[in-house]
């Protein structure tokens, strides 16, 4: 195959990406897969009657699943059974479907406006679909459909990331910890619960989140150990902390802002103070065929979440931290054995100490 043919053949894979996606997702959404899980060996007519669709249309959708080997069809009787799909554990399937549901509701339509989002540096899809001007995080606070698309995913991510995250760094006894951009306080609560009873943990976020955050601390009986500080991360960070956690957000900013954030953290920390960054990163070899960050994140962050920002390589964050006056003490990635086969996001934890 010539280079030109290889490019064209790859472009064909992109052309059928959206149709493959919706065909498979529709088979789940309509209940076709569920019907086959409950009863093996159903005809298109029986499936159509169960899911409330014309048998001919069900048959059309199932061509792709038969091609994939997800579903099998008996040539003699025309009856369908689950094939390879039957081997996937329910919890695994639900996780993948939650992600696909988010892609459908939170991404497909927004991405139509990706060029406009890039041009304007804003999420044009949110404006076109919901009349909302701002980021996806802000939209989630007021637009039920946006919240509905991201909420279940955030819960899945939290469950899979936090145990690993808190296991990958130490906090000195009695430390004062700042959970930077800590939102509604969940990160502070988990920090306190996983890192020990003698910590003081403060959530730093926009002032409007204070009431919700304090309510969450109170509900957990942690008001004596957890507090809230309001402000703007791009202006300054509060002083008096030994450890700053920067979880799940540096990839939402571009270089100038990340450098400002690292600089603000450096100014606020005492010498010897620590910073712990949790973020998805590009692989050091961008052409790594086993990595999916480039397939997903640029379009997602620019077209659906922020309209700006993006991932970096771990080595780039390391360099920016060092240029900001930190010494990087460790970069930890998840054990590949703990990463499910459908995972897209590859995160690392970068720990650094303030020099001087
Ligand atoms: C992606 S979430 C952060 C995720 C959180 N750290 C975690 O671990 O789940 C973004 C948060 O940043 C806050 N935020 C956005 N811009 C900010 C700014 N300029 N200063 C402080 N907080 C900000 C938002 O209010 C929101 O709670």
UniProtKB/TrEMBL annotation:
This is Putative methyltransferase. Residues 17-87 form the O-methyltransferase dimerisation domain. One of its GO terms (molecular function) is protein dimerization activity. The keyword Methyltransferase applies. InterPro entries: COMT-like, COMT_C, COMT_dimerisation, SAM-dependent_MTases_sf, WH-like_DNA-bd_sf, WH_DNA-bd_sf. It comes from Actinacidiphila reveromycinica. Pfam families: Dimerisation, Methyltransf_2. The keyword Transferase applies. Residues 113-326 form the O-methyltransferase C-terminal domain.
């Amino acid at each position: 195959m010539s280079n030109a043919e290889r490019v064209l053949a790859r472009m064909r894979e992109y052309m059928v990406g959206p149709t493959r996606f919706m065909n498979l997702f529709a088979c789940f959404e309509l209940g076709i897969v569920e019907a086959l899980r409950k009863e093996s060996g159903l005809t298109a007519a029986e499936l159509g009657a169960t899911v409330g669709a014309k048998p001919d249309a069900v048959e059309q959708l199932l061509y792709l699943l038969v091609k994939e080997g997800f579903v099998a069809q008996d040539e003699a009787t025309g009856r369908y059974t689950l094939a390879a799909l039957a081997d996937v554990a329910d919890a695994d399937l639900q996780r993948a479907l939650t992600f696909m549901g988010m892609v459908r509701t939170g991404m497909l339509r927004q991405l139509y406006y990706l060029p406009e989002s890039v041009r304007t540096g804003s999420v044009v899809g949110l404006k076109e679909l919901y009349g909302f001007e701002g980021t996806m995080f802000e939209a989630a606070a007021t637009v039920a459909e946006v919240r509905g698309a991201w909420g279940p995913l955030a819960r899945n991510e939290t469950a899979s990331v936090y145990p690993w995250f808190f296991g990958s760094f130490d906090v000195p006894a009695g430390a004062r910890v700042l959970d930077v951009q800590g939102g509604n306080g969940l990160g502070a609560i988990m920090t306190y619960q996983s890192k020990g009873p003698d910590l003081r943990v403060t959530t730093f976020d926009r002032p409007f989140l204070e009431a919700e955050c304090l309510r969450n601390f109170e509900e957990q009986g942690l008001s004596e150990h957890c507090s809230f500080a309001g402000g703007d991360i791009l202006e300054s960070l509060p002083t008096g902390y030994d450890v700053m956690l920067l979880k799940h957000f540096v990839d939402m900013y571009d270089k100038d802002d990340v450098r400002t954030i690292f600089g603000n953290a450096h100014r606020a920390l005492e010498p010897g103070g620590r910073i712990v960054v949790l973020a998805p990163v590009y692989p050091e070899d961008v052409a790594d065929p086993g990595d999916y960050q480039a397939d997903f994140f640029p379009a997602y962050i620019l077209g659906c979440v922020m309209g700006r920002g993006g991932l970096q390589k771990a080595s780039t964050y390391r360099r920016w931290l060092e240029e900001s006056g930190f010494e990087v003490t460790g970069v930890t990635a998840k054990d590949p054995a703990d990463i499910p086969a459908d995972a897209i996001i590859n995160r690392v934890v970068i720990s650094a100490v303030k020099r001087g």
